[in-house]
Amino acid sequence: MEFIIKNEYFHKAIAEVSSVVSAKTPFPILTGIKLTAGENHLTLTGSNTDIVIEKVIPATDEEAGLKIAETGSVVVTSRYLTELIKKLPGDIHIKADEKYSMTIMSDEILTSLNGFPAEEYPALPEFEDSQGIELSSAKLIEMIKQTVFAVSKNDTRPALTGVHMNFYGKSFSCAATDSHRLAFLETGIRYSFNGSFIVPGSSLKELLKLLAHQDESKVQIFSSESYLVFKTKSIMLCSRLIEGKYPDVTGLIPKEAKTVIKLDAKKLLKGIDRACLFAHEWKNNNVFLEIKEGALKISSVSSAIGKIEETQPLIELTGERELSISLDGNFLMDALKAIQEDHVLLSFSGSMRPVIIKPVSSESYIQLVSPVRSY
């Protein structure tokens, strides 16, 4: 194997695939990145078995400056390759021999790294023959960002550590819950596709990082036996799925509201943020909301620090005009940050029932936050 590539481009490509490579693994080959030089492209692969990222660099990409002299493949330790390329000054000239020894040249600097045989590297999931679907990259990013924050951080219920991606006909929904809060978003898609997948939140966060650096407007999604595959023209992420049944989250959503209020979303977020400064001694970061006399009072108290109170005007109020509830301030902030609109609706069914948070313009995006004890 032999090729030449521009330093900065190569370094960025390595960084993208190495983000999932583990430095601590009982399988030494998984500490490495697989480099495969084909006739007209270079492929970089990183994996921890749960997530696989593959980056394809075409020889036609002028920004990469890729020139392939000899095809072949080798696996080299990610940590040393990453650090070395970052410290080299000029274009990178790489050769690998039949003994898996890789030589790296840059200007007058010559380095060699011991590698592993590429055939021992885990194979990618097979999905070529499976049914797939194409989505707008912007839409997929939006769906993930507005739900993934609500996944559980506790492994006792593995299904809740993932986002439930459900395709049914021409409908696509994402749901995430940790049993105390819920984020649910549904959208229409152009083509019919059926499938239900629990994708680890960690995989989707990696996907967001990758898509943020891509120019492609479309993402293809394929399913295999135990993986879901997200693919653009230049990069692919394969995520192992979480086994099990996801709970029916629709049963968590109250059917009727006693009180509905409309507020300035940014102003409310800032008010909750201020109240959280005094909420840390509470187990659930308690922030108190009280609707009274046509306004919303936000407060929190700390026996060690003091207390904070502020009143915000309501744009609209329907239903019962008085209500008080205690909520986790951090959960409220997460929900409000995910809503990219000027105004927000809060629906209350009682002081011990979950609060529904929705953007004014969308019935298909629902956030739910359960109340917490105030004693």
How does this structure look, described?
The chain has 375 residues and is α+β, with helices and mostly antiparallel strands. It folds into three domains: 2-120, DNA Polymerase III, Chain A, domain 2; 135-249, DNA Polymerase III, Chain A, domain 2 (Roll), CATH 3.10.150; 253-369, Proliferating Cell Nuclear Antigen (Box). 17% of the residues lie in helices and 42% in strands. The chain contains six helices and 26 strands. It has helices at 7-18, 78-87, 137-145, 201-212, 265-276, 329-338; strands at residues 2-5, 32-37, 41-47, 51-58, 67-70, 72-77, 92-96, 101-106, 109-116, 132-136, 162-168, 171-177, 181-188, 195-200, 218-223, 227-231, 235-240, 259-264, 286-292, 295-302, 306-313, 316-319, 323-328, 343-348, 355-359, 365-369. The strands form three sheets. Strands 5-1-7-8-9-6-2-3-4-17-16-15-10 form a 13-stranded antiparallel beta sheet. Strands 14-11-12-13-26-25-24-18-22 form a nine-stranded antiparallel beta sheet. A four-stranded antiparallel beta sheet has the order 21-20-19-23. A hairpin with a 5-residue loop joins strand 25 and strand 26. Helix 1 packs antiparallel against helix 2, helix 3 (137-145) crosses helix 4 (201-212) and helix 5 runs antiparallel to helix 6 (329-338).
